[in-house]
Design a protein that fits this description.
Layout: E1 2-9, E2 12-19, E3 22-30, H1 35-84, H2 90-105, E4 109-116, E5 119-127, H3 131-139, E6 150-151, H4 164-168, E7 173-181, E8 184-193, H5 201-231, H6 242-259, E9 263-270, H7 273-280, H8 282-297, E10 304-309, E11 312-318, H9 322-337, E12 351-357, H10 365-378, E13 384-385, E14 398-399, E15 403-404, E16 419-424, E17 427-433, H11 442-447
Amino acid sequence: MSVNAVEWLGVVAVVTLVGVAGALGHVVLASELGLLSYLVLGLIAVVIALGIGHVAVEVGRRHQREIKRHNEELAALNAVAVTASRSLELTAVLRDCLDKTLEVMGLDAGAVFLASQGEIGSLAAHRGLTDHFLDGLARMKMGENVPGSVILPDSPLLTPDQEGETHREWIRASVSVPMRSEGRVVGTMYLFARGHRDFSQREVQILVAIGDVIGMAVQNAKLHAQVIELAARDPLTGLYNRRRFEEVYRQEVARARLYRAPLTVAMIDVDCFKEVNDRFGHAVGDRALEAIARILLKGRAMDVAARYGGDEFVILMPNTELQGAQVVADRIQRAARAVVFPDIPYYRLSLSIGLADSSAGYEGILERADAQMYACKRGGANHPLSTPRSERPGPAKMEHGGHPRAHSGGLSVIAHSHLAAERQQGAVVAARPLAGTHELPERHQALVDLHPILPRQPRA
């Protein structure tokens, strides 16, 4: 700011004010006195102009500082937004966003909790806090307060005990930031300073904006996880599909090989499933598959079950030897035989299960289990098989005049010589034991109507 010129126009003194960008205006003074008064008047005008110029310069500097601070806030918000957009994996999003928020806000420690039904929820990320302090945070309920903390709108209040914990952590200031998405709080970020810190209104506003950005990122990550999960699931049974199972299988084989841990695979096939579909329709077949899936979903938490294709299922059992897998397979067999179809009371599920473990090496476990499953099916089905067929006792013994006795379960091994059938248009509609023979077990009677019964061949 400077005085460009003083022009004398009769009894009027005009002072032009010039700034960096050009003329800012004029100061005009007038008097009816003599020449000396004109000189005094001009001097006064110059002093006024200089004062006004100083004020204008100060206002400009303040405005520049305001613009700079605003740009820094936008840069901080943008930095968090860019960080939030780098990943769709929830844990990585929260960890990176917490780190970036601490950096741009000049804070020392923090923790992120995901909300869960009115509770603080689960710890998702943290920096600079001890496990003991985090345990205290996790035990708190909504509505409890951090001493001296700044609580932003819609955020829960939370702290460990009033005196001890924050002092032991050397925390002197804290702020609770809600993470919101679509008007709903999805989590809370707790930020801490170990030195004195007064959060200004502008800092509170930028923290609210940061919380909203992270809240949207959390929601996007959750939606992405849901899409991935749906893509990995079989739509009928809810089990993992074959593609997802093979990914997990490769990971578990690598892990087991690294730690020399046992690993067992069970391959499961529904016996005579084609006959079930042909006789009763695919709706009944689907119900059978759903029933088996429910059994598998109730298994051990460590196991991974999947629909491998058609009527085949597979279970991956980490840290499990063959003996333990046999127990699991037996439980599945018992549960399958107990399934009842009210509209088809004579139908019972029958499964062939093949087991293979890592005792013979980690390569080819899945293939060996598949081979054992087919060996089980050839041997009569409905029992888990984990050893070669030649090493197992034969499923059928000769009884009643040299005719085979019914084996435990599979449709293909029901002893025809024990049954007499009434036929109608070539289909079996009823069956009863022959006079003088033993009563068949209930599970054999239930299954007999699914298989055509061939007449006995006369002896030569």
